[in-house]
Specification:
With about 150 residues, the chain is an alpha+beta fold. The protein has four helices and five strands; from the N terminus they run H-E-E-E-H-H-E-E-H. Helix 1 packs antiparallel against helix 3 (about 70-95).
């Protein structure tokens, strides 16, 4: 039996997680990937749980400057690859007469290999105070930090 829509979608999502894991030099405990495709604006970001702390991609170097490369060039390459995957998801959805998500939140636990995804189809970024995806990502980061504190 050939691949179906869900298989192709899963492959793209796996690629997104893989891109972020590679960015974190395969040293993250959990990976969180944010993708937004709203009003013809595509944006993406990622952050990580490392040693029971939530860390933005730009702050990895503060954990271990020898282990992580957070140069602007590397961050841009990561986000560009994620953007390409977001475009692929949109094309896949259109080609299969499926709604295009406005937001995707992926998470992956490296140790348990548990993965998950949450999709939104209504505007998310447009409803924020500043209308920028960074606000949504920062709120998600704070949610995850709160979960870690509660779990402690």
């Amino acid at each position: 039996m050939g691949k179906v829509f869900e298989d192709y979608l899963s492959d793209i999502q796996k690629d997104m997680v893989s891109i972020c894991l590679e960015y974190a030099n395969y040293k993250a405990d959990k990976v969180f990937v944010y993708a937004s495709n709203e009003n013809n604006v595509i944006s993406s970001d990622c952050f990580f749980e490392i040693n029971h702390s939530i860390v933005k991609k730009s702050k990895l170097k503060e954990i271990d400057s020898a282990l992580y490369d957070t140069s602007a060039q590397r961050q841009i390459a990561c986000l560009k690859a994620l953007t390409n995957d977001i475009k692929e998801i949109a094309a896949l959805c259109r080609d299969n007469n499926q709604p295009v998500p406005t937001e995707i939140r992926l998470f992956y636990d490296v140790q348990t290999k548990k993965a998950g995804a949450n999709y939104q189809y209504d505007p998310v970024v447009a409803k924020t105070k500043n209308g920028i995806s960074e606000d949504v990502v920062n709120d998600w980061i704070e949610e995850e930090r709160s979960k870690l504190k509660v779990g402690s």
